[in-house]
Amino acid sequence: MSDVHSSDDGSSQNSSSDQPPRSLAEQVSFSLAALLLTTLVGLICYLWLGKRGEAPPNPILVIKPVQKLSGQFHVPFELTNQGDNTAASVQVVAELRLTDILTETGEQQIDFLSSQETESGAFIFSQDPRKGTLTIRVASYKSP
Amino acid sequence: MNKNRRRQQAHWIREVEDITRGACGGFLFGIPLLYTMEVWWIGSTVSPPLMLLAIATTWTVVFFLNRTEGFRRTTKVSFTNAARDTVEAVVIGLVCTGIMLVILQEVTLQTQLSEALGKVIFESVPFSLGVALSNQFLSSNPEENRVQSSKQNSTAQVEARQPEISETLADIGATLIGAIIIAFSIAPTDEIPMLAAATSAVWLLATVVISLIISYGIVFEANFANKTKRQQQRGLFQSPLSETIMSYLLSLVAAAMMLWFFQQLDFSDPGAMWLSYTLLLGLPATIGGAAGRLAI
Q: Which residue of chain B comes nearest to A116, CA vs CA?
């Protein structure tokens, strides 16, 4: 019969004073678990107390050079939230005007953008954006 | 001296078994929520005070479960021991969830710390409950197990010459039923295409490895009911390794069929898509299949 706190015969006692001490294995696993849980709680407190401010989401768009792939024109972009709060449903829209006529449009939606998080994507056009005026902008977001 | 060493060794083996049992219970209970994108979203946006509240709530519920059940083989535990076991149960849940979210690529090196913590904490709630309930799931008294297995031994000797086909069919049936029970509700959802979009070959290989480890753990390491019986099982599933691999392949077939049934896949789709979708749904299907084989 085991002499540790957990026994197979169901005869383990109901009060801590009656119970035999925990084995080394149990003590080691508890210590590791307690250390991990304390670290986790510490990280959460760090996030909570160390929050820089309450600045609203601030999605900043960086547009990369146009790439031609299989006869189509890809315009990659990166979106970084430089605000303190998370933005949800961030809408990015693109408009291509050739000779002042709206020729092609595109729209993307990014589900969540945490503070300092970067998401990337690309708009695809059938005509070369370099020959016209390309506007890519963040149109909207909502608070989660 | 030697006796002391043997006792220490027995304690370590027992501890590993307890933790494995807890982790397997967690996987059985927590895997469906892991494939729920709404929880990923909630985790992405949750604030630190709510994270602390979630941990405190989970701890309290698991504590009360540990007072009666828990993941260790015991019937009654003191307040202090239950509190210590609760810390372990919550951490087992958090670690298992963290590993799964990394394998499913919902937490990557690019994920912000607050988002990663939120996802892990919210997804770990059912895992931790599963850890605390692991003795309840399919568990039985080891003494009963021994009596049952010795009875089975004598029956097996009498029936030694009988064809093993019926046992193999029973195993196949149990694996398929278990796989369907767990994976059927996940197959038609958008989570599988979303996860497939985020994964890569390396992470798919990791999915295969973790599926096999969890399946083996549930059936042969977690000390659940009928473990001894399973080790004596005859038929095509004659050894732990072959049983684990055979049942994994069966679960993959079941997963592919479920995806096809719900029109997530059709025969015109590329092979790579079939493979990634099937392997991703294969993980919950294998866990269900393992639980199914223990239930027979």
A: B112
